Amino acid sequence: MASLAEIRARLAAAESNKGGQSTGGDNAIYPHWNIDEGQSATLRFLPDGNAKNTFFWAERAMIKLPFAGIKGEMDSKQVQVQVPCVEMWGDACPILAEVRGWFKDKSLEDMGRKYWKKRSYVFQGFVRENPLSEDRTPENPIRRFIIGPQIFTIIKSALMDPELEELPTDLLRGLDFRITKTSKGGYADYSTSKWSRKESALTEAEQAALAAHGLFDLAEFLPKKPSDTELKVMKEMFEASVDGKPYDPDRWSQYFRPAGVSAPAGGSAAAAAPVEAVEAARPAAPATSSFDEDDAPTATAPVVKPAAGGQNAQDILAMIRARQNKQNI
After folding, report:
1. How far is residue 68's CA from residue 110's CA, in Å, rounded to a whole number?
2. CA-closest candidate to residue 42, choices 143, 179, 142, 145
3. Using CA atoms, how far apart are residues 4 and 161, in angstroms rounded to an integer?
4. Who's near 244: CB < 8 A, 6+ residues apart?
5. What is the mean pLDDT of residues 1-7?
6. What is the pTM assigned to this prediction?
């Protein structure tokens, strides 16, 4: 398990660099987003079972591809497919390679935000105070938590506080974290969430559960790294999405598919991210609140007025690529 100093060093290095499957049906994921407005849940985070991980969380980056329905289905509603961003593994993402250039034009910035990667973070620990009336709780009380960027910023900021002497995950001198749900602009807001100021040890029951069940290796709950073939499929799906085309199950369901679409008989679908089913159940947030990636580019070019009558997806994609071709000449 990494020390607090090692975590601080890694976080500081990350900030410096910026400057320059289903859930398995085990009900292990705690749905903190379901607590009522004005209520709080108290969590106690635990270390990652993978000793090679400096942090006590695993980062997940996904790209959401919306489609205008499903090909061949009448009156099909819009569907969405999530694909992993390979920047999680330090590789160049073919989708972001194209989207990144959109931010050079103010008129395309909203389109860029739509297709930019969305981060979430997988934690594990105990739920010490639970305001939810859950129909079924897992036998293993060590739950997994899917934390969004807003809450994660609060968690990370406290770790850099020089007055913090012990890791919050320390079994004897750790700290609880209280997630509080309020609302802002009609949407859920967690900005008042905070760490406890009082240290506490794990209870005897919690220590017994830890001894009996052990810790999760959080990397096991991330999507698998796409193969070269899957990367080509992702790029093809991205282009179809931007063009406003429907999702084509005959071409893509073997690799990536939206909820409700089955894998083809005899096919082997790409491993889905473990929290995908949970996120699908959440109400969609507006683009302005769901997009809070601090490493996204910003528009620098003057605003280009759209042509009369507006622009469809094909026009936008053609315009983007025409500009990129000019830059490469």
Report:
1. 18
2. 179
3. 11
4. 68, 312, 313, 314
5. 69
6. 0.74
Distance CA 262, CA 249 (A): 9
Distance between CA atoms of residues 35 and 47, nearest Å: 25
With a cut of 50, say whether residue 100 has pLDDT above it. yes
18 CB neighbour count, 10 Å cutoff: 9
Cα–Cα distances in angstroms (integers) from residue 291 to residues 32, 114, 145, 226, 231, in the given order: 20, 8, 20, 24, 23
Q: Are 188 and 43 in contact (CB under 8 A)?
A: no
User: What does the block give as tokens for 121?
Assistant: 């973070």
Helix (H) or strand (E) holding 8: helix 4-19
Does residue 287 surpass a pLDDT of 50? no
Please provide the average confidence, as pLDDT, over all residues in the chain: 82
Instruction: Write down the number of H helices and E strands in the chain.
Output: 10, 9
Write down the CATH superfamily of domain 4-98+116-287. Answer: Replication Fork Single-Stranded Dna Binding Protein (3.90.198.10)
User: Of the candidates 200, 208, 137, 214, which has an alpha carbon nearest to the alpha carbon of residue 171?
Assistant: 200
| Domain edges within the chain | 4-98+116-287
Residue 14 has a pLDDT of 64
